C-alpha cells in the first residue's frame, strides 16, 4: 500500500521559505485525532480544483501555492471539511482541517 510521507513539519531540502508559499496542516476528526488517508484538495479563490494529495498516516498534508485565497477541502470516511486560508506572502502557513459527517 502506498502512503504519503509525513509532510507537516519538515520541508524537503532546498525549499526556500523566503520565496515559496507553503500550505501545510493536518486532517483531524471532531475529537482532534489525525485522519490518515484523507484526500485533501486545494481549490482556488473561485472554487476551482487546483491540486490533490493524500494525507499521510499522521493526517499531514502540504501544498506549494501562490499568495492569495485558497480553500483546503478534506474528504474521508470520517467525514468532510473545508477551511479557507489566505497567505499574503511566502512562508509556511499552517492550517488544520477538521472533518465531520
From TrEMBL:
Keywords, in A-Z order: Isopeptide bond, Ubl conjugation
Record keyword Protein biosynthesis present: no
Chain spans, region Disordered: 80-101
SUPFAM superfamilies in the cross-refs: Carboxypeptidase regulatory domain-like
Keyword Ubl conjugation: yes
InterPro entries in the cross-refs: CarboxyPept-like_regulatory, DUF1416
Protein name per the record: DUF1416 domain-containing protein
Amino acid at each position: 500500500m502506498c502512503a504519503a510521507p509525513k509532510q507537516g513539519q519538515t520541508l524537503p531540502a532546498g525549499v526556500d521559505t523566503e520565496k515559496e508559499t507553503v500550505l501545510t496542516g493536518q486532517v483531524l476528526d471532531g475529537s482532534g485525532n489525525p485522519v490518515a488517508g484523507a484526500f485533501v484538495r486545494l481549490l482556488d479563490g473561485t472554487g476551482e480544483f487546483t491540486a490533490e494529495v493524500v494525507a499521510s498516516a499522521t493526517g499531514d498534508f502540504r501544498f506549494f501555492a501562490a499568495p492569495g485565497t485558497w480553500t483546503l477541502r478534506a474528504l474521508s470516511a470520517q467525514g468532510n471539511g473545508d477551511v479557507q486560508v489566505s497567505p499574503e506572502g511566502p512562508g509556511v502557513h499552517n492550517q488544520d482541517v477538521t472533518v465531520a459527517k
